[in-house]
Design goal:
Blueprint (H helix, E strand, L loop, with lengths): L16 E12 L2 E12 L3 E5 L6 H8 L7 E6 L3 E2 L5 H7 L1 E4 L11 H7 L7 H6 L4 H14 L14 H14 L4 E5 L7 H14 L4 E5 L3 H7 L2 E6 L2 E6 L1 H5 L2 H8 L2
Parallel strand pairs: 3-8, 3-9, 6-7, 7-8
Antiparallel strand pairs: 1-2, 1-4, 4-5, 9-10
Helix pairs in contact: 3-6, 5-6
The structure holds adenosine-5'-triphosphate.
Length: 259
């Protein structure tokens, strides 16, 4: 250890990575969806995960968020927090959140209220909506509205938003909880070209303060955001590197062409 005392809830990233997965295997009826997979995600980085269908990307996300328990291996959040000892809500509470492909905003509530709801704690959703916001909470919502580019639509019901805008609102709802790691599953599916560009800007603006792991099939999009790409194949890491490096790797070309 480096001698720095950590407060409860703090994540020890003093060695660089915020997520450590080592020798993780997951079997479904004898089939290895993850096979001795090891992966490290640095604090503040934006990582893209690619790989052909069935490579294990979703299973990997499920392991990190506690939905699926590995048969073997270790999964740590920072150097000291053992995620395999925690259930799904505890992992989310610790600061690892996941954005699923399909947006699930509340159509009848305004954009602002959706963000307000994301503040919901143990008091419950309705109590949160009717409670008076304090200054810090109001400032946080304003900041998030700015980040997701929905300031002007703040009073509109979420139901009138375009598909892309709903996705950004949902990212905003996750940001309200100030996660340290965001796992983002196929963020641009169904978006217009303009929305795709705006989503790239948004994800790029989020790195640094938090780590972002994006699973995406669209290679053009991956190229536009990724400094570092991990290629999964048959439940293991096939290779890692810049987009150019992985795209020119004969093993990557082979698994994609063979798909
Ligand atoms: N609950 C399950 N029961 C049985 N097999 C499963 C289960 N979940 C996943 N698998 C299998 O494990 C393998 C990895 O699946 P996974 O969904 O993680 O891949 P993926 O890389 O996310 O694929 P895609 O890009 O198609 O979403 C696949 O062969 C899949 O059929």
């Amino acid at each position: 250890m480096n001698g720095i005392a950590l407060k409860p809830g703090q994540v020890d990233v003093s060695h660089g990575p915020i997520l450590y997965l080592e020798d993780v295997s997951v079997s479904f009826d004898g089939f290895k969806a993850l096979n001795n997979l090891s992966l490290y995600i640095d604090a503040g980085e934006l990582r893209c995960l690619i790989g052909p269908n069935g490579a294990g990307k979703t299973t990997l996300m499920d392991v990190i968020t506690g939905k699926t328990r590995p048969d073997t291996g270790s999964v740590f959040f920072g150097q000291t927090i053992d995620l395999l000892q925690m259930d799904e809500p505890a992992i989310a509470q610790a600061g690892i959140c996941r954005k699923f492909q399909k947006p699930s905003v509340f159509d009848m509530l305004s954009v602002f209220e959706n963000l307000e709801l994301a503040l919901a704690t143990d008091k419950g959703a309705w109590a949160t909506l009717f409670a008076k916001l304090n200054g810090a909470q109001r400032d946080r919502i304003e900041q998030v509205l700015e980040t997701i580019g929905l300031v002007e639509l703040r009073s509109q019901p979420a139901g009138i938003l375009s598909h892309g805008q709903k996705q950004w609102l949902e990212i905003g709802m996750l940001l309200m909880q100030e996660p340290k790691v965001m796992l983002v599953d196929e963020p641009i599916a169904g978006m217009t070209h303009q929305e795709v560009e705006r989503t790239a800007e948004l994800l790029l603006s989020l790195q640094g303060e938090r780590s972002i792991v994006v699973v995406e099939h669209d290679m053009e999009f991956v190229r536009s955001i990724a400094k570092h790409v991990t290629v999964l194949h048959e439940g293991s890491v096939l290779t890692e590197g810049s987009m150019d490096e992985v795209q020119n790797d004969p093993r990557v070309i082979q698994v994609y062409l063979g798909d």
